[in-house]
Structure formats: structure tokens, C-alpha cells
Amino acid sequence: MRQHASGLSWQAETLLAWRRDREAIKVWRRVGLSASAPEIFCEAETADGPVRGVVVGGDRIDGAWDRNGELIVFTQTADMVWLNGPDLKTLTLTTCPKAFEDIIMYNDNRSATRQHIDHIVVKSGLTYNMLGCEKAHALWMDHARRLGCEDPLADEMPVPHQLVWLGAGLNRALALVIAGQWNGQETGFSLYHPLTLFTDSGQVVAVENPVEAEVYPVLRVPA
Question: With a threshold of 0.70, does the pTM exceed it?
Fold first, then answer.
């Protein structure tokens, strides 16, 4: 795979750009797949020239993207392009597990300060989305009431702060812990007992065995 100035492949660069594009994320979520990020990369030759990017939406058949239907591609230049299979001169759809591995390594190699800022931004976005999800918000309010806070607008209203990974590999998701066994403000929710997560794909996920499900902390992000 050809690498860019960042040392990342075009596939990894495209995924990083996708993560920063709210509209592209919305398109992906509307597909309704369980994966927290798109996994199929597209290289196509159109009448207007070559297009390459990651497939974020379109027609599906037999559990896969329909090569003869419409595909919505988020390109490496951060544009969204609608492709019609029969109109394409060539079309290649592939997976690229190494792109996800490269992103993890890229994140791990950046400065601790930059990672800390990124995690705060992610946590803030997840919290905002969680408050807009009726089920997740209700679970968090149950937790707040147990801590003695009844008013969601009160200054003492607790804010979710435990950012965790759920799973491994291509389908690894970022999530906030919103319910479970509370071990106090310093420790937060236990990651060794059943808990409930709000993921970056907007899903509320109940996890019976966090160890088996590979739930582990990203870091503790201050409220």
C-alpha cells in the first residue's frame, strides 16, 4: 500500500478523514450495520476519472455491497461520491485490516497531550449523542438519581467520563460506560461486572462479561 506523508496508507488516511466528517458518519449509521466503522474500500474508474475511498452506504445484496447497485463512497479527499455500478468502467471492492492496525499504531505514537485532547473531544461528542438517545439518557439518569441528583440541569449532575474500547480488530468501538456496578468517583464503574455502554455508532449495548467481550479503558477522561 502506498503511504502518505503521515506514514499511513490511503485507506487509513481515508478512515481518519471519515471520523472527522459528521455527515459521512450519519450516512454510515443509516446503513444499520453492527460495525462501528466502514470496512470495505473502493477503487473505481468512472467517466470523470478514478475514485477511491471507503464505502459508507448504498445498496446491499446477500449481506454485501451490491456491485450492480448504487454505492456511496467517502473518498480520500473527504468528498462523498455516489457511484452506479453499471456505469463504472472498473470497480474493485476490498478489505484492508492493516489500515485499522495502522490507525491504532498512529494514535499510540502521538504525544500524550494530543491523545488526551482527542479523547476529550471524543468523550464530549459521545456524551452529546448519548443525551439525545432516550434509552441511554434514561439509564444515565437512573445512575444520577442513585447518586442523589434528580435535576438534569443541576450543576452537580454527573457527566459520563469512562471512555472504553469494546471488542478488537476491525469492529472495535469506542464507548462510554453509562450503567453498571459503581465503585465511586475515583474508580467509576467496574469493568469486571455487567455494564451498559453507549457506543460511537449510537448503540446502547449491555455487556454481561466485560472481560470476555474485551472491554478495556482508553483512559480516564476528566469530566
Answer: no
Which ranges in the chain belong to alpha helices (H)?
A: 10-19, 22-31, 97-109, 112-131, 134-146
- Map grid coordinates 439525545 to a residue: 132
Q: Provide the residue ranges of all domains of the chain, joining segments of one domain with +.
A: 10-100, 112-220
Q: The CATH number of 10-100 is which of 2.30.30, 1.10.1740, 2.60.40, 1.10.3470?
A: 2.30.30
In whole angstroms, give the CA distance from residue 95 to residue 11: 10
Q: What pLDDT, in 10s, does the model give residues 45-82? A: 999 999 999 999 999 999 899 999 999 999 989 999 99
Q: Of 158, 171, 177, 169, whose CA–CA distance to 218 is shortest?
A: 177
And the C-alpha cell for 67? 456491485
How far is 133 from 83, CA to CA, in rounded Å?
A: 32
Name 177's Cβ contacts closer than 8 Å, sequence gap at least 6.
160, 162, 164, 188, 189, 191, 195, 196, 197
Which grid coordinates belong to 116? 488526551
